[in-house]
Structure formats: structure tokens, C-alpha cells
Write a structure and sequence with these properties.
By secondary structure, the protein is of the alpha+beta class. Helices cover 69% and strands 8% of the residues. The protein has 10 helices and 4 strands. The protein has a 4-stranded antiparallel beta sheet with strand order 1-2-3-4, with no helix packed on it. The two termini are 51 Å apart. About 2% of the residues have low confidence.
């Protein structure tokens, strides 16, 4: 096979390799989706940071019952009216050995309000767990998407490296017989060195991504991870208005702020209950010893104690005002968070649309045009109308566009992952 035929065959094979990757843009491959779902399930089950939030939820589940329970009753043992001259218990008729039991009863409705506040605090913590869960899922998706891109970039770069090696052989052969230029050889060698440098960088990035993914999955950091499927573009047609509704109904941080508002509302009602007294109820028994001449009767007693909210202007009233301010504060926090969330969704949608248009431009315009340019360079090289450096440059240009194409798809998929985390719900 002569030099020109060899170049033609090598480049056409390379174009076929590019063509295999450029057509799959309609939907994510099922194998990729299934693998990703398994990784998400593993992360949700094993991620230590998420487990910590699970334990926090379990801890808060124990609070409502505590809040609605009465204080422990108090038992009192005492000896009263003991004479100092003899310390005898049967000398004086008023000397007694007493036992009393007392129980505090809050004003009706207070315990149920304390329980309601604890329930809202539990719901807040549950939403914190869901927010962290969505964040972990987003991280798994982004890391896996980036790992898939790096694998694809390594594959494309390795193909180009092998092609450049053949270009170098061609350039060296032509230079040896006096039909080529030394600069053709040097140009090919420089490009080959650049390819090798890119491969080194890509493989280092891959190790970092594998370590990051293993950390999210709670696997050993150094554990190899070779089973990575190829990523393609996911279809997307949700509108901004529909995403707003989804976010309001599903974003955990928003739902948590709603529960915080409800918690302060119950606290406000509880503060108003403090204008009414609590009760201490008790009963006691006093035992008296008989003297040598008199048989003495034992005593029984009962009592009720109430607190008097005498300083209500500086205490209870101020507490009511504090809880009213907390309600207003939490409401404004909710409104602010909702506005920020809507802006975030709009910003992500803008970037998704930009990526989508760029992907379409690369798929239907830039890559086909670069392919035609390379084919034209091949035809021109056959009849000595295009020099060898132009041929190499066209091949490198097409290589760069192919890398950019897969990077755009990866950025697009990562933005979809961010969008899911923003609205608080799996969309795809």
C-alpha cells in the first residue's frame, strides 16, 4: 500500500470511530441509566454523611413523646417539730414523720402545644435529611457523568495517538526518500507529545474521579472502578412554570421552612398560654409516735399551689412578641428562599438550553463540517494540493471538536442533575 492510500485508510477508519459516538444524542443509554441507579441506591444506603442525618431523624423522633409527658412527681420525706432538748419523737404531740408526693400539672393545652412544636422540629430534621439525600444523588450523578466523559476522552485521545503514530511513519518515510519535509516529521511528533500529555492528565483526573465516587459510595478510596457506561444526551421538555410548581411542592428546604413557620406558630400559642398559671398538687401523710400515756392520731394533708404571672408585662408579653417576630422572620426566610430557588431554576434552564443548542450545532454543523474539511484535505493531499501539516491540523481540529462535543453533553447532563436537586424531585 502506498503512502497516500495508507493515509486515506487510516483517516477513514478514524472518521468511522467518530461517527459511532456522534449519533447517539436522543436518549441516555439504558445500560448507563441502570448502572447509575444502582450507584445511587448504594450511595443512599451506605454514605456515612447521609447515615448521620438518618440518626439525627431517629433522635428527634423521641422528642414529641418527651414533650407531651408530665414532669416527674416529687416525693418528700421529712421530720418536723422535733424537740431540741431530747430529740425524742414521742415527747411532743406535734412531732411527725411526714411523707408527701407532689405532681405539677401545666395549664390545659400546654403539653399538646409542646408536643406539636416537637413534631414540627422532627419534620424539619426529616426535610434536612431529604435535602442531604438529594445533594448526595446529585454528586453521584455529576461524578459519574464526569467519569464517563473522561473515559470517552481517553478513548478518543488514544485513537488519535495511534493515528498520529502512523502519520509520523508516513512523514518519516517521505522525508527519507526526499519527498517530504523535516517540519512534517517534527509537527507530527509535537502533536503526538501533546496527545501523550493529555492522556497523562486525563488518567490522573480519572483516578481523582474514581476516588471521589468511592468516597460517596463509602467504598475504599483506592478501589478500582472500570465499569463505566458511555453517556448520551437525555431528552428534556419541562417548562419553567411546571418546574416552579414541582419545586414549591417538593424542595425539602422550602418544606422545612414551612414547618419552621408552623413551629413558631405553636410557640406563639404556647407563649399566650403562659398568662395562665400551672398547678402543683400534693398529698402528705404525717405519722406521730404514741407517748407513754397518750395514743396519738396520725395526720393527712393535701395542697394545691399555683404560680401567679405577676410580671406578665416584662415576661409573658415579651415572649408573645418574640414568637410573633419569629413567625414573621421565618415567613420572610421562606419567601427569600423561594425567590432564590426560582432564580436558580431559571439560570439552570438557561444553561441547559444553551448546552442543548451547542450540542445540536456540533452534531449537525461543526463536526460534519470538520469531517468534510478533513476529507477535502485528504483529497487534496492525494494530488499534492494540500501539504502534510494541513492534513494533520485538520485531524487535530476534528479531534478537539469531538472532545468538546462530549464535554457539552456531560455539562448538559450535570445541569439536569443540578435541576433535579433544585426542585427536590427525580425528573428523569
Amino acid at each position: 500500500m502506498d503512502t497516500k492510500s495508507r493515509v486515506t485508510l487510516l483517516v477513514l477508519v478514524f472518521l468511522m470511530i467518530l461517527g459511532l459516538g456522534s449519533g447517539r444524542v436522543s436518549a441516555v443509554e439504558p445500560a448507563y441509566r441502570e448502572k447509575l441507579e444502582r450507584l445511587i441506591e448504594e450511595a443512599v444506603e451506605n454514605n456515612p454523611e447521609l447515615k448521620a442525618y438518618e440518626e439525627k431523624v431517629r433522635a428527634y423522633k423521641e422528642r414529641p413523646s418527651q414533650a407531651e409527658s408530665l414532669d416527674d412527681p416529687r416525693l418528700k420525706l421529712s421530720i418536723v417539730n422535733v424537740p431540741l432538748d431530747s430529740f425524742r419523737l414521742n415527747q411532743e404531740p406535734m412531732t411527725q414523720k411526714q411523707i408527701s408526693i407532689m405532681q405539677k400539672f401545666p395549664f390545659p393545652g400546654k403539653l399538646s402545644l409542646k408536643g406539636a412544636m416537637a413534631e414540627q422540629e422532627l419534620e424539619i430534621v426529616k426535610k434536612e435529611y431529604l435535602e442531604k439525600r438529594n445533594e448526595i444523588i446529585k454528586k453521584v450523578k455529576v461524578v459519574y457523568n464526569n467519569l464517563s466523559f473522561i473515559n470517552k476522552a481517553i478513548e478518543i485521545t488514544e485513537n488519535n495517538r495511534e493515528l498520529l503514530k502512523e502519520f509520523i511513519k508516513i512523514a518519516e518515510t517521505k522525508y527519507a526518500v526526499g519527498k517530504g519535509l523535516q517540519q512534517d516529521v517534527l509537527k507530527s511528533q509535537v502533536e503526538l507529545s501533546r496527545m501523550i500529555d493529555r492522556l497523562i492528565s486525563l488518567r490522573q483526573k480519572k483516578q481523582t474521579m474514581v476516588a471521589r465516587l468511592n468516597t460517596l459510595l463509602n467504598r475504599p478510596t483506592q478501589m478500582p472502578f472500570e465499569d463505566v457506561e458511555e453517556l448520551s444526551q437525555t431528552g428534556f421538555n419541562l417548562t419553567f412554570e411546571s418546574l416552579q410548581k414541582i419545586a414549591v411542592g417538593n424542595r425539602p428546604v422550602l418544606l422545612g421552612l414551612r414547618h419552621l413557620i408552623d413551629r413558631y406558630r405553636f410557640a406563639y400559642k404556647f407563649a399566650k398560654k403562659d398568662f395562665y398559671p400551672d398547678f402543683d398538687v400534693g398529698i402528705g401523710y404525717g405519722q406521730r409516735d404514741d407517748s407513754a400515756t397518750v395514743e396519738r392520731t396520725d395526720f393527712v394533708s393535701a395542697f394545691v399551689t399555683v404560680n401567679i404571672p405577676l410580671w406578665y408585662r416584662t415576661k409573658e408579653s415579651r415572649k408573645v412578641a418574640e414568637e410573633e417576630a419569629n413567625i414573621r422572620k421565618a415567613t420572610e426566610q421562606y419567601n427569600s428562599m423561594k425567590n432564590d430557588l426560582f432564580f436558580q431554576i431559571k439560570d439552570i434552564l438557561t444553561e441547559i438550553e444553551e448546552n442543548r443548542q451547542q450540542i445540536e450545532l456540533f452534531r449537525t454543523g461543526i463536526i460534519p463540517q470538520s469531517t468534510m474539511s478533513l476529507q477535502s484535505a485528504i483529497a487534496g493531499y492525494k494530488v499534492n494540493k494540500v501539504d502534510f501539516i494541513t492534513l494533520v491540523n485538520n485531524q487535530i481540529t476534528l479531534y478537539n471538536y469531538e472532545i468538546d462535543y462530549y464535554r457539552l453533553i456531560t455539562d448538559y447532563e450535570n445541569k439536569l442533575a443540578e435541576l433535579e436537586a433544585a426542585v427536590g424531585k427525580r425528573l428523569f
